[in-house]
Structures are given as structure tokens and as C-alpha cells.
Write a structure and sequence with these properties.
Helix Hairpins, four-stranded antiparallel beta sheet, single chain, alpha+beta, 24% strand, Elongation Factor Tu (Ef-tu), domain 3
């Protein structure tokens, strides 16, 4: 009995140490909880974030056979570097054909211009002939009037036997000749007028031919420019500095126009797209400071800032966006893509980042 009392007293003596340890643990837990709460009031974090960059597809603008491939997988290239060369022989033939067609069109134009000038000259000649015929007709009419008057006087004189029969017959012949000459001149004028109309029609036709020939020249010039442009497309170059990825093209392969050959990851810029929950969105603003930590470089933080927010949640851009009006509705917290730009994009470590890498994002909201 005495032993039990002694053990009980010893246990009571040890109880203060237990309470001390418990108090310490509660204090540490409370401090940790308060620090986390305080931190959450000034920060928003997410690990649903990836590095992004411009990925430019290399596309063939024309169809053709591959003559030469000058790049390999993961090769760094500069803007304007030659990537692929297509066989240009077919396009060279098309270029020569376009040049020959343009030369023919220009020759036809010269002929049309010469014919037009000749037609205009013919019009002037025909008009001059008509004017000459008018003058001759006027003179012939005067002559007809004069000979008719002479014949009338001679008819009176022959009745009085004042002139001989021969003189009368000469006056009659002169009058008849003058009338016939007038008819001939009128007929000639009619022919000249008809000829003028024909020449005018020909001139109009030649003028139309000149316009058509000029239009053909413009068309042939466009064909020639198109042939030169297609020939230039046989050399496929890099649109910008970057790294080539997944080169599956081989020499002798036939490429269709618009065929996606491979991609170039451009090295001019990198950024982060972080998908925050909609419940984290209310205190976030453009321009707020951000700390980015990449899984590839643990312990190293990159300074950045919020550049912009997506116009819609990520689900709205999905191939099959959810339709909450059909079936049973289950509320799911949506995520909003946020674009984050690095403060120092020239940092060598940032240049080593690759699109698709996972990063952790910490936004300083206050």
C-alpha cells in the first residue's frame, strides 16, 4: 500500500514536464498556423503552371521533291538560315515559259500599235479623199451649169441659123460630158465615204486590239512574277532565331503545298502560363510581382510580373466545353490562365528553360 502511494506521488511530480512539452508544441503549431495564415493573406500560389514560348511551324508553300535538308533535330538556327531546298527544275521551266509568254505578248502589242497607227493614217487619207471629191463635185456642178447655159443659147442660135450644126453639137456634147463627169465624181465620193467607214471600223478594232494586247502583257507580267515567287519558295528558311524540333524530312521526299514539315521553338521570348483557381482571382491584378520557381532549378526564384489574364476559363477553350444546362450539374472550381512575364528574359537560366516545363508560381498580392 505504501508503495502505491509512493508511485502516485512520483507520477504527479512528472506531470509538469508533460505540460511544458505540450505547451511548446501548441505554441509551435500556433506560430506555424499564424505564419501560414499571414502568408496566405499576401500571396497566391499554384503549381499548375508551365513555361511557354512561341512555336513556329515550318510549312512548304509549294509542292516539290526535297533536294537537300540542312538541319537536324535540336539544332539552333538563326533568322534567314536555309533549312530545306526543294528541286527547282520544274519551276525553272515554268519561269522560262512565263518569260517567253511575256516576250510574245509584248511583240503582239507592238504589232497592234503599228496596225492602229496605220489605221489612223488610213482614216486621214480617206477623209482627205472625201474632201477632194467634194471640191471636184462642186467644180463639176459649176461646169454642168455653165455648159447647160451654153447649150440653151446655142439652141436659140441654131434656130436662127446663126451658128453651124457642128457648133451646136459641140455644145451638146460638152453639156452631156459635164453631167457624166458629175455623176462619176458623186460615185467616187460615195466609194470614198464607204472606205472611210471601213477604215474607221478597222481603226476601232485595232484600238481594241491594242487594249487587249496591253491587258495580256499585264497578265503575263503577273504570271512571270508568280513564277519567280514560286521559285523563291524552293528555299525554305528559318523565320526567326530558335531551335529546330522533330525533323522527319528526308532527301527525295515529295512535299505537298501547305505540309507542316517541323517546328522551330523561337528563343526570342519565354513566359509562364499559370492556371489559378477562380477563388484566387479576386485580389490578383496586372503588374503584381511574381516569384517563379522551376522544378528544373530548385531553390532558384525568377522575378516576374502578371502580364494579362485570359478572357475566359480554360474549360471554355476545350475541344468539348462543358454544357451545364444538360444533365445533372456538379459545381467544379474553374481555373483562369494567367500570363506571367519574366523581368529579365535574358537571364541564362531562363534561356535554358524549355516550353512545357513545370514551375511553381507565387503572386505577391499586397
Amino acid at each position: 500500500m505504501s508503495n502505491n502511494i509512493e508511485n502516485s506521488s512520483k507520477s504527479k511530480k512528472r506531470n509538469p514536464l508533460f505540460f511544458i512539452i505540450l505547451a511548446i508544441l501548441l505554441g509551435v503549431g500556433g506560430w506555424f498556423g499564424f505564419s501560414k495564415y499571414s502568408y496566405s493573406q499576401h500571396h497566391e500560389e499554384t503549381d499548375d503552371a508551365q513555361v511557354e514560348a512561341n512555336v513556329n511551324p515550318v510549312i512548304s508553300r509549294i509542292s516539290g521533291y526535297v533536294k537537300e535538308v540542312r538541319v537536324d533535330d535540336n539544332q539552333r538556327v538563326g533568322k534567314g538560315d536555309t533549312l530545306i531546298i526543294l528541286d527547282p527544275r520544274d519551276l525553272l521551266v515554268a519561269l522560262h515559259q512565263a518569260e517567253a509568254a511575256l516576250a510574245t505578248a509584248r511583240s503582239n502589242y507592238d504589232v497592234a500599235v503599228a496596225n492602229s497607227r496605220a489605221a489612223h493614217k488610213g482614216i486621214n487619207t480617206s477623209k482627205a479623199a472625201v474632201e477632194t471629191a467634194d471640191a471636184q463635185i462642186e467644180a463639176a456642178r459649176v461646169n454642168v451649169t455653165r455648159t447647160a447655159q451654153d447649150l440653151a443659147r446655142y439652141e436659140n442660135l441654131i434656130r436662127d441659123h446663126s451658128i453651124t450644126q457642128q457648133q451646136y453639137e459641140q455644145a451638146l456634147a460638152a453639156s452631156q460630158t459635164a453631167q457624166k463627169q458629175l455623176q462619176v465624181l458623186i460615185s467616187q465620193k460615195q466609194q470614198a465615204s464607204i472606205q472611210t467607214g471601213v477604215v474607221a471600223s478597222q481603226s476601232e478594232a485595232t484600238s481594241t486590239s491594242v487594249e487587249v494586247a496591253r491587258a495580256v502583257i499585264r497578265q503575263r507580267e503577273v504570271d512571270l512574277e508568280n513564277a519567280r515567287l514560286n521559285l523563291s519558295y524552293t528555299v525554305i528558311t528559318a523565320p526567326d532565331d530558335g531551335i529546330v524540333s522533330k525533323v522527319a524530312i528526308r532527301k527525295g521526299q515529295f512535299l505537298q503545298a501547305g505540309y507542316n514539315l517541323f517546328s522551330i521553338v523561337l528563343s526570342n521570348d519565354k513566359w509562364v502560363v499559370a492556371n489559378f483557381k477562380e477563388t484566387q482571382y479576386n485580389k490578383m491584378l496586372e503588374g503584381q510581382k511574381v516569384t517563379v520557381q522551376a522544378d528544373a532549378f530548385p531553390g532558384h526564384g525568377f522575378d516576374a510580373k502578371i502580364a494579362s489574364f485570359s478572357a475566359a476559363t480554360g474549360a471554355k477553350f476545350a475541344l468539348l466545353p462543358p454544357d451545364n444546362s444538360s444533365g445533372n450539374f456538379v459545381k467544379v472550381v474553374q481555373r483562369i490562365p494567367v500570363k506571367i512575364e519574366f523581368d529579365d528574359p535574358g537571364d541564362p537560366l531562363i534561356q535554358r528553360l524549355r516550353p512545357g516545363m513545370n514551375v511553381n508560381v507565387d503572386v505577391h498580392i499586397n
